[in-house]
Specification:
single chain, 48 residues, two-stranded antiparallel sheet, globular
Length: 48
């Protein structure tokens, strides 16, 4: 995924893969942008 390529990746099979499921707090804004821009709404963030 262009917004957060270190966290999400869309591969040739058109599936989204999570590369880092515990990103640092500094990446939160990019993750939120990825959620908003995902055309398939395949990303959801959860606070743990």
């Amino acid at each position: 995924m262009q917004v957060a390529p270190d966290i999400f990746e869309v591969r040739d099979d058109d599936f989204l893969y999570v590369l880092n499921d515990t990103p640092e707090d500094e990446a939160r804004e990019r993750c939120e942008e990825a959620v908003n821009r995902c055309p398939k709404q395949a990303i959801k963030l959860a606070d743990v």
